[in-house]
Amino acid sequence: MALEQLPASEFDSAELDDSLMRAAGSPPDGMVQLLSPDGVRTGHERYGRYAEDIDGETLRSFYRDMFLIRRFDTEATALQRQGELVMWVPLTGQEGAQIGSGRALAAQDYVFPTYREHGVALTRGLELSHLLRRFRGISHGGWDPREANFHLYTLVLAAQVPHAVGYAMGMARDQKLDPSQPAGATVAYFGDGASSEGDVHESMVFAASYDAPVVFFCQNNHWAISVPTEVQSRIPLANRAQGYGFPGIRVDGNDVLAVHAVTRWALEHARAGKGPVLIEAFTYRMSAHTTADDPTKYRVSADEEAWIGRDPLSRLEKHLRASGAADEAFFASLAAEGDDLAAKLRADVQAMEPPAFEESFAGVYAEPHALINEERAFHRSYEAGFADTEDITEDNAKEAGA
Questions:
Q1: pTM for the complete prediction?
Q2: pLDDT tens-digit profile of 372-382?
Q3: Which CATH number fits domain 17-350: 3.40.50.970, 2.10.109.10, 3.30.70.120, 3.40.50.2300?
């Protein structure tokens, strides 16, 4: 392939200049925004009414969730660097997209996350230390997904999206059989990189064909590991929904208020039997893809610095201070709460013990199985042989000492 046929480099100056303009200036045309980077609250003709009931108390709770999940993320990263976790997947910069959407969910809704939705997990009431069990290497999951309607993390790219559609179709049929039950919807979270996977395309075809009550929530953080969004798609990702025949909305992902309003509308639309919705939350990954990644190898610091001005926490903090909805005592108390959270998280992680190997046999089938019983018996016999060897060695050592 000739050089001129290759995709534009992520360091291409024209692409970078465009990215900086979008980061520093007003949102691109068609993007929903209710809170400017300066913290000024605005309206929106279609989605503004879904945020009218958001008062100062609710905004403080939004800020608290974003602050605590960032503190959690910082501590988890430190734990990995210190050898307490095998790997970690940071979310810094995407708190607005996750808290805004997570807080729009109803109890009956069901979430299918990727591996980065720590903020959504917080809004569903999960014990945050449970998120680290898999990254500690002691569990294949970490929690019972039925307890909070929050599915296990999916490490295979886009694999959770077909699951979300199938589950949504099942929810719709159950609701028809028992109309007394509240209508629910699923939310499939995925990134801009995953949007290029065939699983996403197939899921959207099925969802559109059967009017499945599912919200496709794409967190466009601009980087599929080292590949920029411009290489993934030549148009806004939200525009793809038109090809499947359902609504697509592009929202400022660093505006927690706008994300919340748009997600409320989308869930209302899906629960009402009107079919799926695609939300593209236009945000930015401020840290590495994972703790095994080095973003300095593929992006420049000027791009990161330009996005600091759009930080979801500082944006809401400016609004809270300017409107008088929060004072210094609130922020000081929150800082102390964050330190307590980090200390508890560290203690919980360091207290985690790996399960006995025999426990792995219990999760293969839902009911007892002859083959599993046979394999378990062989394992016990195998381990017993090692125990006998150790006993003999100890007895020999005692005799030699005598």
A1: 0.88
A2: 999 999 998 88
A3: 3.40.50.970
